[in-house]
Amino acid sequence: MLGVTRTCNEQELKSAYRKLALQLHPDRNPNNPDAEEKFKEVTEAYAILADSQKRSVYDRYGHAGVGNAGGAGVGFDSSVFQDFNDIFGEFLGFDVFGGGGRRRSRVQRGADLREDLTIEFEEAVFGTETRVTVRRHEACEDCRGSGAATGKGPTTCRSCNGNGQVRYQQGFFSIARTCPACQGAGSVITDPCPKCKGEGRVLRQRTVDAKVPAGVEDGTRIRFTGAGEAGPFGGPAGDLYVVLHVKEHPFFEREGNDLHCVVPVSVTQAAMGAEIRVPTLEGEHVLKVPEGTQPSTVFRVRNKGVPVLNTHGKGDLYVELRVQIPAKLSKRQKELLQELETTAKVSNQPLMRSLLGKVKDIFG
Question: Does any domain span residue 108?
């Protein structure tokens, strides 16, 4: 009936029964008497095999040895009762054989909210204080979140007499389900608050102060505890999540906590060396360009990058030098370059770049 082997363990047995019970349960097959009959059979089989003594008898004598051991009126091992309740309570939401249930609290936690916030590049780097507009449900002041009119309160549910559950008899099962009238709370609001219509909450628009820490990136999510939706019937509020969108910078490009930029230099500055001023997010920095600097050389300026979020330290600034070649030359400039060409012959053969040379290019 269960499709298990003689040597199956407890977990395999329970798994096989769970699968068949959920498939054949009368609630899922209301107009199928065959399914109900098979459901009773697999339940009887499980009740026998889950009991170590009955399973031992069945192993020796077969079904004739246990007779109607799994039927109504025959005592089951208490652990078998618990297995039934675990299986059906988890998947179908009710108790079996009259198992005790607890009332569901009407009070629930409020939902979390999300708001998107666009900030400037510098605000992400240095941090900022701003405000976020939020539409959210808040506890009703008139009823203080209870949902009942002033001077009134919830009354005992007549459908379940305050138990939060209603009980049905199905075959040899006594099944307890959550009361549909009160949703398991055991009480109902007969005189709802006119302001919130019995919900205990009203919708409002609020402005929330948001502190953005230094070093955040695009897509960073900041949680503000308790700034979300108020819970129904006086329940605790959820959280507010603010998702940051950082605008691009016209000059700097960010990679982690490092900044990258490109600075143009003249041919003479690269060849003869110079001191140039490069911008940073904290002002200008004097960069010494050594004599004979090659095009696309990258220099690292330490601690001029982005602060590390929620800790100390900063990233670095990487400056790539682009040698600008004049598009148009005067007659005198041409004469000077020709004179330079006669004194500085350069072979036009391809160069082999070693790993060491690449590293020097990167770090200057």
Answer: no
